[in-house]
């Protein structure tokens, strides 16, 4: 039985909660300051293999050059891992286009995903969420456990080499500046409702006495 991934359930719930939050607030949180109308690159970084000094130096170079040379609006919600503190300190105030912000709640982060023109990330979950939203993810890894994003064209492996990252962004920037989307969305991870389908299936097993019913009751 194929249900899709429950991450899409969470994403859709977060979108509804974000809409309610904005509707209920007389002064909704504007999010990071919009300093220009340049394409927004949302960045997340946290994987252990990327916390080496040499890789962090490459990522730092890429983010600075994206903001300075390409004029991109780079938004980086900084992960609280102490191994990133040096990078965060060096990037703060480096350039008006480069915005290092506090870690976000899940709901607010989904809002940033929706606003982003493209994503630069080493996160697996972000690959799935961005794919559903139709946002291209430049994956700062050498491989991914989500081959669906590569097959659908919503993800591209770039590693942490600054030159490779810049080349990938430069390839897509003309289309973004012309008003086009970074990619088409994919339903490879489901359409929502996966949790409900899983519960319904397990309940049917329990009531019908099929194998696995005893495990459901435990």
From TrEMBL:
Q: Quick check: keyword Transit peptide in the entry? A: no
- What is this protein identified as? UDP-N-acetylglucosamine 2-epimerase (non-hydrolyzing)
Q: Which residues form the UDP-N-acetylglucosamine 2-epimerase domain?
A: 2-202
EC annotation from Swiss-Prot or TrEMBL:
5.1.3.14
Reactions this protein catalyses: UDP-N-acetyl-alpha-D-glucosamine = UDP-N-acetyl-alpha-D-mannosamine
What Pfam families does the entry give?
A: Epimerase_2
- Gene3D superfamilies cross-referenced by the UniProt entry: Glycogen Phosphorylase B
Q: Which UniProt keywords apply?
A: Isomerase
Q: What class of enzyme is it?
A: isomerase
**What family does this chain come from, according to its entry?**
Belongs to the UDP-N-acetylglucosamine 2-epimerase family.
**Molecular-function annotations in GO:** UDP-N-acetylglucosamine 2-epimerase activity
